[in-house]
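Posting here for the record, re: NAP.
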Amino acid sequence: MGIASINPATGETLKTFEALSGEQIAEKLQLAAKTFRSYRHTSFDERALMMMRAAEILESDKNALAKIMTTEMGKPIKAAVSEAEKCAWVCRYYAENAQHHLADQIVETNAGKSYVKFQPLGPVLAVMPWNFPFWQVFRFAAPALMAGNVGLLKHASNVPQCALAIEEIFTRAGFPQGAFQTLLIGSAAVEGILSDERVAAATLTGSEPAGRSVASIAGKQIKKTVLELGGSDPFIVMPSANLDEAVTTAVKARTINNGQSCIAAKRFIVAKEIYEEFERRFVDEMRALRIGDPMEESTDIGPLATPQIVNDLEEQVNKAVAAGARVLTGGKRPDRPGNFFEPTVLVDIDLNAPVSCEEIFGPVAMLFPASGIDEAIQIANATPFGLGSSAWTNDAKEQAQFIEELEAGSVFINGMVASDPRLPFGGVKHSGYGRELAEFGIREFVNIKTVWIGATDNTDQTE
Ligand code: NAP
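Prediction output follows.
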C-alpha cells in the first residue's frame, strides 16, 4: 500500500507521500543515535518541561488535530477531540511521575550498598496502527522520551498526516532535533531499520501477523520488544447486573471508534435468565445508532478506515451466516459511498466456527447465551486472544471468580474496558506481551541495572 491520506467517508485521495529513500532513513537513524548520546543526560525536570508543553499544544490545537484524524481514518470528530485530550493527559502523567517511576531503588543485601538503577536504552522504533492514530503513539512516546530514550515512528501508511503532525508537536514542544522522528516508510522497510545496530528496541501495536514479523526480526537481533496485538474481548452479563447500564455500555463498547478498537467488546456472553431481554434491548440500541459523516457531531458510526477492512468484515459476516448464524440487524453495507458498514448483531453462532473466536474489526457484535458462570467463562476464554474482558454482576462471589479465571490482561467489573495512564495496559496469549502505561510501561524500555558496591574498607592505610 502506498503512503497516502484517503478520506474513508468519500474515497477521495487527499495527499500522497513519497516513502523515504535508504539514504534518508540512514540520515535519520544517524541523527537519532547522535541525539540519544546527549538527550539521555538531560534531567527529568528538563524533559518534563518539554512534555508539559507538548500537552499544552495538544490541548490548544485539539480541534485542528482532530480534523486530521477524522479526515484520514474516519473516527467521529467528537471522539477525535477526546483522543487529543487523552494524549495531553498521558504527557502530563509521565511529566509528573517519570522521575518517581525511575528513581533508584535501594535493596538491602550483604553489599555496602546495592540498588537498582534505570537507564534509557537508545532509539526505540514504534510501529503503530491507524485506529487511534494519536493515542497509540503518545502512550509509547511520553514514557519513552521521559525515560531518556529517543523515538522513531513508523506509522500506518494511511495516516501520514497524523504522523507528521505528531512529530511537529514534539518539535514545537522544544525536544531536541532527533528526539522524536517520523519515518514515512512502508512496512517492508521495517526489517532493515530494526536490524540496524543503532536501533535498540521496538514496540508494535497492530495485528498478529505484523507482531509475529517484528518479534522474529527483533529476536534474531536479540532486541527487546513490546507487542500490543488484537483482541476478541468478552463482555459477560450475569442475572444480578444492572441491565440498563449493561446494555448501553455494551453498545458503546462494541461500536467505539466505528468498531475498530483492540479492546472493543466483541463477544457478548449473557446468562440465559436474562438473555432474551438483553438481546432485544441490545438490538434496538444498535439499530438506533446514526451512521453518517464523521465530521458531524451527531454521528455515532462513521466509515471504516479502508475499503479492505469493509471487505474483510463482510466476508466474516458472510462466513458466520454460512455456518448457521442469524443476522438480527445490519449485516451489510448501507447504500452510500465511503467505507460504511451497518451496525450488526449476529446470534446462533456455532462455537466451533472460526468466526466465534476471531477478532472482528468493525461494528459487528456476536451474542452467546450461557448457562451459568462456568460456561460463561469457558466461552470467554475460548479464543487465542487475551486482551481485555468485562464482566457485569453485583454478586461478590461471581466478581471474584471472573477476576481469577478470565484469561486477559485486564478485567473490568461493571465497566467498559478502557486504557488509563495510571493503570498498566496489555495482553496475554496472542494479544501480545509487555505493558504500556503506568510504571510498568515506562520500565519496558530501560536497562534495569543492578548496582552492587562492596563494604567500604575504612582501615587507615597511612598510619
Ligand atoms: P496492522 O496491519 O498490523 O498495521 C499496524 C502497523 O504495522 C502499521 O504501521 C503497518 O504498516 C505495520 N505493519 C504491517 N505489517 C507489518 C509487517 N509485516 N512488518 C512490519 N510492520 C508491519 O494493523 P492495523 O490494521 O493497522 O491495526 C489493527 C490491528 O491492531 C487490530 O488487530 C487491533 O486489535 C490491533 N490493535 C491493538 C492494540 C493494542 O493495544 N493491543 C491497539 C490498537 C490496535 P503499514 O500500514 O505500512 O502496513
